[in-house]
What does this fold into?
Amino acid sequence: MNLEEKLIDILKTNENLMRDLEWVRQLGLPHWCIAAGYVRNFVWDYLHGYTDRTPLNDVDILYFDPTDLREESEKYYDIQLINQYDKYNWSVKNQARMHTKNQDDPFVSVADAMKRWPETVTAVGIRLDDDMNIEVIAPHGLEDLFQLIVRKSPYFKDEAYFNSRVSTKKWLDIWPQLRMA
It folds into this structure.
């Protein structure tokens, strides 16, 4: 079994996974995925043997639409998801406009945007294809996620921010088997 299959098998133990993916799929967003802590935290909880899920700060929904760069569109999608389920802090972001946050060159896809995130283990997303199969987007691969290694993305420029982020989020306290690269 390769790591992508292993990831999908682990995620399928999340009783809400297909429901959450279907809600996002119904928005009709181009090139979308649920990413970041939704995937990362669940895998880390699973690998640590936790039976209770670590609470999520938010649920990151990414999509790529260079034809509509309005933040209002993202807010509209947030509201649609809140109307489906208000227990999550949904955060829908069009990656076609997010390059301005870190003064990067424009991104060409969701995967291109994700590879520039602070950590390799956060740059993992999942989506449903047209046949309702789970697809994985992982521009840095899945090795760090499964080896419990927190590594700065080679594309992320701000090392101080990366270190502060890991410390502030208390990942090494919550998941003690994690190692810093």
User: Anything to note?
Assistant: The chain is about 40% helix and 15% strand. The helical segments are 3-11, 17-25, 37-47, 71-84, 110-114, 143-147, 159-169, 171-174. The two ends are 25 Å apart (CA to CA). Strands lie at 33-35, 59-63, 90-94, 125-128, 134-137, 149-150, 179-180.
